[in-house]
Amino acid sequence: MTPGSVAIVGAAESSQLGLAPQVSQIQLHADAALNALADCGLGPGDIDGLACAAEWPTEIAHYLGITPTWVDGTMVGGCSFMLHVRHAAAAIAAGLCSTVLITHGESGRSWVGTQAMQINQASLAGQFELPYGVLGAPTMFTIPALRYMKEYGLSHEQLANVAVVQREWAAQNPRATHREPITVEDVLNSRIIAWPFHVLECCLVTDGGGALVLTSAERAQDFPARPVYVLGTGESVETPMISQMADFTSSRAFRVSGARAFAEAGISHADVDHLMLYDAFAHLPIYGLEDLGFVARGEAGAFIWERHTAPGGKLPVNTNGGGLSYMHSGMYGMYALQESVRQLRGTAPAQVPGAEISVCHGVGGMFGASGTVILANQRS
Amino acid sequence: MSINPKTLPRPTPETRHFWEGVRRGELLLQQCEGCTHVYFPPRPFCPGCASREIRVIRASGRATLYSYVINHRLPKWIDAPYAIAVVELEEGPRMMTNIVDTPQTPEALVLDMPLEVVFEPVTADISLPKFRPARGGVR
Predict the structure, then answer these.
(1) Which of A124, A287, A358, B92 could make an SS bond with A340 (beta carbons 3.0 to 4.6 A apart)?
(2) In the prediction, which pLDDT does A117 show?
(3) What are phi and psi of A265, to 5 degrees?
């Protein structure tokens, strides 16, 4: 894809975000999709490409009344939407379709119209991880952190501080689930979930959805909102088993995906005005800052402590409050993309003045997959 | 630690030898005949070089504590916080396990501490490899 040849022209979250027990999962997809279509003045009949995760594209196409010539049901966890953007940009550039709708909806808290994932006791993770008392992401995604702490001297206070700084951003966001200020002491005194992680270092569990509309840059000026151009993208996967992650202090999927996106965009780290780093748990922005090359290995905890990612800092990170304070329905990547779009349109609640380039980086599974999207509000 | 029957491993044709080994009190790995790479979890080809010429080897059972969490959100069949750990075997591969015969506390569980394998029977067919602080008695 030529950098800037495809743009996001419609973007919206679901009407309700946080707690939505009166809406089923598929309706969260549809509600967000209708909001995004209204945002760009299109209807389902204008859409010829469809991508989604958590529901089959078949379900969403039928439900919304779309007849696509291109579909993508890539499902690699919470960063699936970054991959959808990447695949959609390639599909539009290749002429497989002209206008792509990416939808997400998840009744992650209320569990309306959805069901828990089946456990496959014969999968490798089922045989070699599940028997040891793992109970979802809080007991697995967190396991590498102690190794990182020993290797690089990251302190419990520095880990807790990730949540503190993000709460500062959330305080500026009326839609954030939690907005009241917290201190490092508050985090360390909060309930232990999986030591060394406390509840305030773990993401929220909410309901919600979001949707994006993409088309070629040539058409992008025809829509009401300021276009947000796709400059570069990357994706990769590593392993479905946290125990088999090659380096517990660094994600290979992050490194591969991030490097690819930067190379394609042709930008340097100094060009980046705004950064979204998928934060299911407090250690993830630390890995993200390092694996994407914003700071050297082992330096991210101090970088955040020195307030470089906080309001007023030189590299604003997770300006919506992140999965720790804004919302997290289970697969958070769509909400990170929405915040990048808002920042580049100049409509974010905690707006970064003059933001022109935003990097949006996601994780899927537990360091299992990664997607990176670099966006800009100017074509080149 | 009691175990939920829905989380018992279900061996496949490619992993059955491993679980039969555990039941006999042997921790089995695989090694590539070509590139000598030792690997886990089991598969009938080398993940390093894709060769199908591999052999099963018996691990020494010696390991070190690589990383862990102590789970405090307890399922109803477990009554006290417990560590979910990843250990690094002497032969190189890492595996998830539990650490037994020691308090489940940060003070007792120190990264890189030496460990040794023990085999914990769960059902007539399935035993699980777990690790305890090294006493030096493992083959």
Answers:
(1) A358
(2) 74
(3) -70, -25
Contact B67 A126 (CB under 8 A): no
- What is the SS3 assignment for A351? coil
B96 shares contact with chain A (CB less than 8 Å): yes
The residue whose two tokens read 């919206």 is: A12
Q: What is the DSSP string of A282-310?
A: TTHHHHHHHHTTSS-TT-HHHHHHTTSSS
Fold of A6-113+204-376: Peroxisomal Thiolase; Chain A, domain 1 (3.40.47)
Task: Specify the DSSP class assigned to residue A90.
Answer: H
Residue A203 sits at the vertex; the CA angle it makes with A202 and A207, to the nearest 5 degrees, is: 150
Which one, of A240, A281, A234, A255, lies nearest residue A76 by Cα? Answer: A240
First to last CA, chain A: 13
Q: Over pLDDT 70: what percentage of chain A?
A: 100
HEC readout, B42-101: CCCCCCCCCCCCEEEEECCCEEEEEEEEEECCCCCCCCCCEEEEEEEECCCCEEEECECC
Q: Is B64 on the interface with A (CB under 8 A)?
A: no
ipTM: 0.96
Distance from CA of A164 to the nearest CA of B (A): 22
The pLDDT tens digits for B43-102 are 999 999 999 999 999 999 999 999 999 999 998 888 999 999 999 999 999 999 999 999
Question: Coil, strand or helix: which one is A253?
Answer: helix
pLDDT, residue A97, reads 98
d(C-alpha B79, C-alpha A348), whole Å: 46
Helices (H), chain A: 25-40, 57-64, 80-94, 124-128, 144-152, 156-170, 184-189, 217-220, 252-265, 284-291, 300-305, 322-325, 333-345
In chain A, what are the domain boundaries? 6-113+204-376
Residues present in chain B in total: 139
Q: What is the DSSP letter of A324?
A: H
Q: Which of A3, A13, A204, A160 is nearest to A90 (CA)?
A: A3
Of A148, A229, A287, A326, the active-site residue reads A326
At B6, the pLDDT band (50, 70, 90 cuts) reads confident
Q: How confident is the model over A152-199, as pLDDT tens digits?
A: 999 999 999 999 999 999 999 999 999 999 999 999 999 999 999 999
Q: What does the pLDDT look like over A98-122, one tens digit per residue?
A: 999 999 999 999 999 998 777 899 9
Q: How confident is the model at residue B138 (pLDDT cuts 50, 70, 90)?
A: low
